[in-house]
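Bug report (template v2)

What were you trying to do?
Predict the complex of my protein with beta-D-ribofuranose.

What happened?
Run completed; filing so the output is reviewed.

Input:
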Amino acid sequence: MARKVILDCDPGIDDAMALCLALFDPRLEVMAVTAVGGNVTPAQATRNVQAIVEQLDPPRWPRLGAASPPDNGLPVDGRNLHGSDGLGGADFDVAELHHVHPSEKVICDQVRGAPPGSVSIIALGPLTNVARAFQRDPELPGLVGELIMMGGTVAGPGNITPTAEFNIYCDPPAARAVFRSPSTKTLIPLDATNRIVLNFDLLNKLPAPSTKVGNILHRILPPAFRGYRQRFGLEGIHVHDSVALMASIHPELFTIEEMAGDVETAGELTLGMTVFDRRRVPKWRRNIGVAQHLRQREVVDAILRGIREAAAHAG
Ligand code: BDR
Ligand code: CA
């Protein structure tokens, strides 16, 4: 039976790729796609979610959710890597901008509208919406099946400050609230996602631009390769959010360790850092599964296969 999921995302090139993979995967039933500000403003993230879903036009449309600004505003954005519109400048048309409910309401409605534990959340951006949904409905954490989050770092450096990963840094109080919530959580940190690098060869393996998935990926991926080369001198790209999605579709490819984790919300140098109690005798209670290791080759294969299959399903 397909797993019911809500995708919460801030498209973002790797978010958009994850949407292409998720919306046609027979193992997932995407109930809702909710936008959150992060890589781009909340308004642009909402527009991008609508644009991508509209371009892909899946047989069963998910509910859509609109992003609103985090309480303290966005301290950064990802436009230097994802382009001014978040999608490498593809600037997809949106035929009709729907009036959509706030993302946190959509999350609450979807989880409440299904049997307890049957809907999981895959969070691919800052945790603003998830924290708000949990605040709006305090019983919600116990009703969500699994919360899979792309974010944070355990042993390696951050990617937005020396210590912080982008998604967590965008809204540290929200991330802390979610980390401390009594939900079943799995974190896919940079330690895992940085192990996957897709090289230029990917562009030769993409489905034809005449397909819906091919059209999107041919428009958003070349600018991503340019961005990674210019910013990092890398001859390849990371696709953090697609890797996190794979943890939901192919959990057997990931090693999950139960850890005790929290989020720094005040440090001058460490704001937004994910902190884990790794002392010989930990004092904190274990509260989160963390994937630091994955089967590299097989995850890459699963992503490439997923792209091909999505294109075949979507037409
Ligand atoms: C995360 O930050 C964003 O730029 C990506 O979309 C991903 O979710 C990686 O740190
Ligand atoms: Ca993202």
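What did the reviewer find?
Residues 9-10, 12, 14-15, 38-39, 124-125, 241 surround calcium ion (ligand 2) (CB under 6 Å). The CA atoms of residues 40 and 77 lie 6 Å apart.
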